[in-house]
């Protein structure tokens, strides 16, 4: 029997577990605040940002929403970040990716105060993660860790194959999984578009994390019996329904499920965890700023 790892349920547990920390901060006169910055008309990005704002309101985090015209000069975004860095009611600054081509993503990430970088993308925070001393774990890989814990998947000594080498998922995921403390003690292989014979790599894996952004790239044929499959992909593909699209992962679900001992669905797998861990990081940031020792789930 394959276990379907329910990301909505695990995310709900994380949100419920944050209540004590938010109450403790409230007792200290602090309300955690998250600023989201959207500079895109991409419908998926707009959906994710509204979901993040709704999540904040649900748990008692102040959501400050900023939308910039995608054609606005990059300086407008840089100045907004500078202002948010100075604002004491803001504990987390999130700039939704991807950004328009004329904006220098590296400059944006460098500009965010590392103490408010709840995405964990600032070079200082990337360095801390690689060194095994993370301030903020990036939300998606952190969410994947929580899903593995919830499904009681122990990665210690296991072969984990990550398909995808993005800065948002593949690279930080690999760094977390190889670590001892709060990591996974796993043997990690990172595959990408130039990997020769991808199936040979995925077939020898105990756990496959698919995060390449290619719809249904990983099929059951490429997996071994009993594998744990974590599907990070969320691709909108054209469909003859009301929305005009459906969401599919980077894994071909039906064939993979036949082989897997546990698998995450799309939607309802990793996506909700990305959002839950953003709340987690924002509450941590507020605690750090206020010098309040909060108990995080
Ligand atoms: N600044 C950031 N930008 C982006 C990140 C990020 O972590 N920080 N990650 C991705 C997308 N992402 C977060 O913004 C994200 C993706 C998916 C979901 C989600 O809840 N998905 C739902 C389905 C939602 C839908 O109906 O479309 C699910 O999988 O069940 C949340 C966040 C890129 N940018």
TrEMBL record:
<feature type="domain" description="Tetrahydrofolate dehydrogenase/cyclohydrolase catalytic">
    <location>
        <begin position="5"/>
        <end position="119"/>
    </location>
</feature>
<feature type="binding site">
    <location>
        <position position="234"/>
    </location>
    <ligand>
        <name>NADP(+)</name>
    </ligand>
</feature>
<feature type="domain" description="Tetrahydrofolate dehydrogenase/cyclohydrolase NAD(P)-binding">
    <location>
        <begin position="138"/>
        <end position="286"/>
    </location>
</feature>
<dbReference type="GO" id="GO:0000105">
    <property type="term" value="P:L-histidine biosynthetic process"/>
</dbReference>
<dbReference type="GO" id="GO:0004477">
    <property type="term" value="F:methenyltetrahydrofolate cyclohydrolase activity"/>
</dbReference>
<comment type="similarity">
    <text>Belongs to the tetrahydrofolate dehydrogenase/cyclohydrolase family.</text>
</comment>
<keyword id="KW-0511">Multifunctional enzyme</keyword>
<dbReference type="GO" id="GO:0006164">
    <property type="term" value="P:purine nucleotide biosynthetic process"/>
</dbReference>
<keyword id="KW-0368">Histidine biosynthesis</keyword>
<dbReference type="GO" id="GO:0004488">
    <property type="term" value="F:methylenetetrahydrofolate dehydrogenase (NADP+) activity"/>
</dbReference>
<protein>
    <recommendedName>
        <fullName>Bifunctional protein FolD</fullName>
        <ecNumber>1.5.1.5</ecNumber>
        <ecNumber>3.5.4.9</ecNumber>
    </recommendedName>
</protein>
<dbReference type="GO" id="GO:0009086">
    <property type="term" value="P:methionine biosynthetic process"/>
</dbReference>
<feature type="binding site">
    <location>
        <begin position="164"/>
        <end position="166"/>
    </location>
    <ligand>
        <name>NADP(+)</name>
    </ligand>
</feature>
<dbReference type="InterPro" id="IPR000672">
    <property type="entry name" value="THF_DH/CycHdrlase"/>
</dbReference>
<dbReference type="Pfam" id="PF00763">
    <property type="entry name" value="THF_DHG_CYH"/>
</dbReference>
<keyword id="KW-0028">Amino-acid biosynthesis</keyword>
<dbReference type="InterPro" id="IPR046346">
    <property type="entry name" value="Aminoacid_DH-like_N_sf"/>
</dbReference>
<comment type="pathway">
    <text>One-carbon metabolism; tetrahydrofolate interconversion.</text>
</comment>
<keyword id="KW-0521">NADP</keyword>
<dbReference type="GO" id="GO:0005829">
    <property type="term" value="C:cytosol"/>
</dbReference>
<dbReference type="InterPro" id="IPR036291">
    <property type="entry name" value="NAD(P)-bd_dom_sf"/>
</dbReference>
<keyword id="KW-0554">One-carbon metabolism</keyword>
<dbReference type="InterPro" id="IPR020631">
    <property type="entry name" value="THF_DH/CycHdrlase_NAD-bd_dom"/>
</dbReference>
<dbReference type="Pfam" id="PF02882">
    <property type="entry name" value="THF_DHG_CYH_C"/>
</dbReference>
<keyword id="KW-0560">Oxidoreductase</keyword>
<keyword id="KW-0658">Purine biosynthesis</keyword>
<dbReference type="GO" id="GO:0035999">
    <property type="term" value="P:tetrahydrofolate interconversion"/>
</dbReference>
<keyword id="KW-0378">Hydrolase</keyword>
<keyword id="KW-0486">Methionine biosynthesis</keyword>
<comment type="subunit">
    <text>Homodimer.</text>
</comment>
<dbReference type="InterPro" id="IPR020630">
    <property type="entry name" value="THF_DH/CycHdrlase_cat_dom"/>
</dbReference>
<comment type="function">
    <text>Catalyzes the oxidation of 5,10-methylenetetrahydrofolate to 5,10-methenyltetrahydrofolate and then the hydrolysis of 5,10-methenyltetrahydrofolate to 10-formyltetrahydrofolate.</text>
</comment>
